[in-house]
């Protein structure tokens, strides 16, 4: 398992780096699979950070009596 990134930005940059590597048609299968595994771990890590941020925003909005922002998009 990979080391946990120190920040969202670091994890996102690493994910972008892995995607560029996987786009190389000369990449060996074993390395492709390893990069794919690392990238899925990063996606889950990034998703957990975003979910935590959304939860924190909801809590802050409730404490301040603010209505949730709705930009008209269906986010379901």
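Sequence proposed for the structure above (76 residues):
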């Amino acid at each position: 398992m990979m080391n946990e990134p120190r920040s969202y930005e670091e994890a996102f940059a690493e994910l972008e780096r892995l995607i560029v590597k996987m786009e190389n048609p000369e990449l060996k299968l074993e390395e492709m699979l390893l990069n794919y595994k690392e990238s899925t771990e990063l996606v889950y890590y990034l998703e957990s950070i975003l979910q935590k941020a959304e939860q924190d925003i909801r809590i802050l909005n409730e404490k301040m009596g603010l209505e949730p922002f709705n930009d008209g998009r269906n986010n379901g």
